[in-house]
Design brief:
about 270 residues; alpha+beta; 8-stranded antiparallel beta sheet; 3-stranded antiparallel beta sheet; about 25% helix; about 35% strand; Late embryogenesis abundant protein LEA-2 subgroup domain-containing protein; membrane; transmembrane helix
Length: about 270
């Protein structure tokens, strides 16, 4: 005989199963997402100290300051050379400017006033005190006569103080003197006489022998060098001070007061400042 028993349903058996996804779709409902697990707190980032040697630290300037950085770096390596070079450049520019200004002034004088170069010549050279028979030092004296010609029709020349006249033989300075200060007007010829003297001049044996030989042959060459500051007058305007140097190669026939000039060749140069 069969045992028929009815067991009561427990709570687990009475709990309906969770709806499946297909069932939710069938009823038009969205599935409920499960709650995420609680997040753990993030610890703050750790701080680290890294020590690097100073010589290994590289620093780069921003792009806008790259040129300045390079310039400062070069200046630091060169030290004070940059300032010296800038000074030299300024001096060179000033010299170039002065040369250009002098050239322009000379061009204006020549083109506008047709400036002609003055002419100089030594016309007489009287010699005293050239005793070659004694070994003692000599004290020669030269009376020099210089002819200065100003061929310009619109230009006058001021010969200023501070001139110098020297007589040489074989690069041995025998005597020195000065020229008088004067004004030479246009189209004028002025003859200047000056005495140039020397004291305690010692002649070497070679120089003395050369002088004796030249006296025996009647040809003794001397060099007369003149340096004089001048100012040029154009109308009512005077130029700045200009230095004129004149070199004359003079050959005489004797070492006496009555010496005659055999040949005379003069050349001059101008220093514009």
């Amino acid at each position: 005989m069969t045992d028929s028993r009815v067991h009561p349903a427990t709570a687990d058996t009475l709990t309906p199963p969770p709806p499946s996804s297909s069932s939710a779709k069938d009823f038009g409902e969205h599935p409920v997402p499960p709650n995420p697990p609680p997040s753990k707190p993030v610890p703050p980032p750790a701080t680290y100290v890294v020590q690097i040697p100073r010589e290994q630290i590289l620093r780069y300037p921003p792009p806008e300051n790259a040129r300045r950085f390079q310039a400062l770096t070069r200046r630091g390596k060169r030290g004070g050379g940059g300032g010296c070079r800038r000074c030299c450049c300024c001096t060179l520019c000033l010299l170039v400017f002065l040369v250009v200004a002098a050239a322009i002034s000379a061009g204006v004088l020549y083109l506008v006033f047709r400036f002609k170069a003055p002419k100089y010549a030594v016309t007489k050279l009287a010699i005293k005190g050239m005793n070659l028979t004694s070994a003692a030092p000599i004290s020669p004296e030269f009376d020099v006569t210089i002819r200065a010609e100003n061929p310009n029709g619109k230009v006058g020349i001021y010969y200023l103080k501070g001139s110098a006249v020297n007589v040489f033989y074989n690069d041995v300075k025998l005597s020195n003197g000065v020229l008088p200060a004067f004004y030479q007007p246009k189209k004028n010829v002025t003859v200047l006489q000056t005495a140039v003297t020397g004291s305690g001049v010692i002649l070497g044996s070679a120089v003395e022998a050369s002088l004796i030989n030249g006296q025996n042959q009647g040809r003794i060459p001397f060099v007369v060098k003149t340096k004089v500051p001048v100012k040029i007058k154009v109308g009512s305007v005077n130029t700045w001070e200009i230095t004129v140097k004149v070199k004359c190669d003079v050959v005489v026939d004797a070492l006496s007061e009555k010496a005659k000039i055999i040949s005379n060749d003069c050349d001059y140069s101008v220093k514009p400042w």
